Amino acid sequence: MNRRVIGLLLLAGLIALGCIGAGCTDIPETTSGQSAPPTEGETPGPAAEGAGNVSAGNNRFAADLYRQLASDPDYAGQNIFFSPYSISSALAITYEGARGTTADEIGSVLHLPQNETLRRSGFAGLDAALNSGDENYTLRTANALWAEETYPFLPEYVDTAARWYGANATNLDFAGDSEGSRQTINRWVEEKTEDRIRDLLPAGSIDSMTRLVITNAIYFKGTWVKQFDPAETTEEEFRVAPGETVQVQMMHRTDEEAIYGYTETGTLQVLRMPYAHADGTELSMLVLLPREDNLTAAEEALDAETLADLRDSMTDRRVRVVFPKFTLETEYSLPRALAAMGMPTAFSYDADFSGMDGTDMLFISEVVHKAFVDVSEEGTEAAAATGVVVNLKCAPGEDTTPVFRADHPFVFVIVEEDSGTILFAGRVVNPEGS
């Protein structure tokens, strides 16, 4: 598969490095792995075209979400790391059940192909490629539906999630055992990410109103084609801001065989560090290093077209590489960010997920995301998971609170409470009169 088709995964690593300084009784229960994606004969149109469209949309979403998080005061001065592919996969499954404005907004924010065949075959093709296996690295992704066991989801929605996204449904007792259900989902995430993502769904995120949770997990572990010698790693200064430094472990690769993909502009240096692979998809880490301390130049290059142009301009040459070892663990609650990006309806009582259950009674109560990355002399380990929590809207009940508005003539009495004896009686026709 063309390198650009999986550029999304590379961008996830790039984002981290750029910021290092700064249920249902009608659902058959299944707990097996992903269902096989449709064969070419079952899918009208070229699967590769769909994968290309989905990948391009994912890359645009990655840049958009990065900018949204980077501009959020809550993350000012903090590292950022996330898997846009994990988030877009979980939300694409959610999109399959959305209708009307809700669907339009989600599709726009994710930059999803409007053509149903291209969208579905694109995700199926990418998932198949990412799970194809390689003897030199580990890379896998998985989706799942977790449904309230008493809730009647539409079979068409459940079938679509399973057939095209490998998201098989497991019935859970959200209504009667919310905490147990939360722990079951979190254990699945831990298993899929080699225990790197723990407690994806925090306490309180699942309750008796939860009807569906959609999850994605992704895991990668690979070694550099050109590994760093641990003996060359030294403690050095890392400039976190003008005039401010911290001590970090810096790796060195400056020998004659330090040949890397490289390009530069007036404001950037760009390095490609490939991971070892055999017959599987080729993976690399791209690093955008500003020539000055300001990250603006690197962040502006996160535009999908600019990033593609930079990759195309790379040539293999000797580069003296000095690079920090680092480990990042991040977690995000995404409703506010996603709403600000253009999909607020999904989180409101105006949400329309009738494609899931045939009613307008569902909305997204939470989107949680956790990510982990460790970069060392040997290579990189990265994992991420996303959970979309879909709850039942509270039915608008009739307000039975009485209103007593004495704005017209009335009668009143004063009684002795023990015996009920009326001590005084009267009426008020005009409170201002005598």
Automatic annotation (TrEMBL):
Location of this chain's protein in the cell: Secreted
CDD domains cross-referenced by the UniProt entry: serpin_thermopin-like
Signal peptide segment: none
Bias (Low complexity)? 36-52
Alphabetically, the GO molecular function entries are: serine-type endopeptidase inhibitor activity
Which segments carry the region annotation Disordered? 30-53
Print the keywords alphabetically.
Secreted, Signal
Question: What would be one Gene Ontology cellular-component term for the protein?
Answer: extracellular space
Q: List residues of the Serpin domain.
A: 63-431
Q: Which Pfam families match?
A: Serpin
Q: Which family does it belong to?
A: Belongs to the serpin family.
* Name of the protein in question: Proteinase inhibitor I4, serpin
This protein's species is Methanoculleus marisnigri (strain ATCC 35101 / DSM 1498 / JR1)
